[in-house]
DNA sequence: CGCCGCCTTGACCACCATCAAGTGGAGTGG
DNA sequence: CCACTCCACTTGATGGTGGTCAAGGCGGCG
């Protein structure tokens, strides 16, 4: 099965034990740069902004899975940007349970909070081996002072993050377990697609079901059952760590998913609906 | 019982039927201006910033309860600022249920989103008669161009909003109903206290239990039972629309409440712990 | 007086957490 | 190569939390 369309979020071949080891220079600018692909959704960047962003994000490092990027309580330092892999915002509760409040995919910023807040009220950690860019605060300051289009775009990104957070809250509060799982998968497909990490309805999700449970506010056991039920209903299928959405329309409908809150460009939105899934094999 | 300490969030005496009727000029600057009281928490404003903010917020209008300030789908226009009353961010779901994703108390901004996002992905509506300031976009633009301290403070405010949102998500996902109710009351007391709308553990909460249910992702019936149980356990008491916290330490402990996420000034935080509640009548 | 909004209470049972045990694959060491 | 461990996923059984339905109380207001 060559080139199934599913791309890898992690890069296990490099997942060495060193924490900040391999430094890599990316080549093109827009080509495979997820940050640029994402920020382009805002629709305000011009060619020269892209090169500037490209330059800023050219030096990244690898970090293992299940490592903290920033711990709760720490004062925020540099801004971090995900280039590959997967991370999350999370809090540990007194009773030992974990609550994951956001999933960070390639192209997402970890904390534009910069130094405005005195301490992190939550931690950020990787879920899979990831490639991260550290952006020194001075560069952010420079951008916000001298690059109004980029500044506006960064604003846009934080607003979208907040919108996603709100939608997760809706899911938690008013959707039942199975819809909640479905809704998350819908969102992920769309978010990953905008950074070219999903094709033909398939994407890699290199996390275990316990992590999924902590994102969904459910128990591990129930997540398992709901995934099985979604598979049995022919809405999705899962093999290994890759998720495939069979009937996007049906899944969106079932989950009550409306991509409006992601504030995508018209172009991306259209691409979504057009290219369809693997099959229209709805029962 | 003169001057019980509970202050009014609404102003029913003025709650006329006209939507945008009475225009009022506030007198002092810091005195009773909730926006200034709140923004001062960021700790970066100086005297001249305060007067500037004071000037901006001097013209407000009344709006009835249960009215939309902005509807979902609309393009955002002016920024709105709550001066009194109570409002919320909300979404209506296809099945007719409502999800409230944020509570806006005096001093909160409704949507610094300004024009960056093309459309509102949620609505904002009043829950009680409220006094609101419309801030034209040009003024925001002016501030962000010419007033770095104020800009930074507005940033701070949106970051705190986001932190609150995250904490609500934690509540929804990982706290049981009773803790969730308790946690919300803890948060409200603190937030209202910073704008001088709570004293001696008492504050006004002019909303019905159905609204509370929509905020907590619960059913009306269960909210009712949980409130009764909290009362029976002597943690709180409710009479009419005023809530009183009897044993703050016990309530915080029960709810797992840690005010860190509100990013208050050291000063405000200290004031909280010191002044205590009405009594230490813990069972 | 009667209506309406809101709170209250009871009965019932579904959804989902929890506990417990078992399967299967990947990696490791003998 | 086979035992062994470990981790992640599975499956079943059980019961509690909390949703839903339904009815009744109670104050405010036209």
- Overall helicity of chain A: 25-40%
What's the assembly state of these chains?
A: homodimer
**What percent of residues of chain A are in strands?**
15-25%
How would you spell out the order of helices and strands of chain A?
Answer: EHHEEEEEHHHEEHHEEHH
Biggest pleated-sheet summary of chain A: 6 strands, antiparallel
How confident is the prediction overall: mean pLDDT of chain A? 88
What is the radius of gyration of chain A computed over CA atoms, rounded to a whole number of angstroms?
18 Å
Number of E-type strands of chain A: 10
**Uncertain segments of chain A of ≥5 residues (pLDDT<50)?**
1-5, 12-29, 278-283
Number of helices, counting only DSSP H or I runs of 4 residues or more of chain A: 9
Structural category of chain A is alpha+beta
Shape of chain A: globular
Largest interface: A-B, 42 and 42 residues
Roughly how many Å apart are the termini of chain A? 26 Å
Structure overview:
Two copies of one chain form a homodimer. Chain A is of the alpha+beta class. Helix content of chain A is 39%, strand content 20%. In chain A, strands 1, 2, 3, 4, 5 and 6 form a six-stranded antiparallel sheet that branches. Chain A has a four-stranded antiparallel sheet with strand order 7-8-10-9. In chain A, strand 9 and strand 10 (242-245) form a beta hairpin. In chain A, helix 5 (177-194) packs across helix 7, helix 5 (177-194) packs across helix 8 (248-255) and helix 6 packs across helix 7. Residues 1-5, 12-29 and 278-283 of chain A have low confidence and may be disordered. The A-B interface holds A 42, 89, 91, 93-95, 97, 99, 101-102, 113, 116-119, 121-122, 152, 155-156, 158-163, 165-170, 172-174, 214, 216-217, 256, 260-261, 263 and B 42, 89, 91, 93-95, 97, 99, 101-102, 113, 116-119, 121-122, 152, 155-156, 158-163, 165-170, 172-174, 214, 216-217, 256, 260-261, 263. Chain A binds a DNA duplex (30 and 30 nucleotides) through residues 176-177, 208-210, 218-222, 224-225, 228.
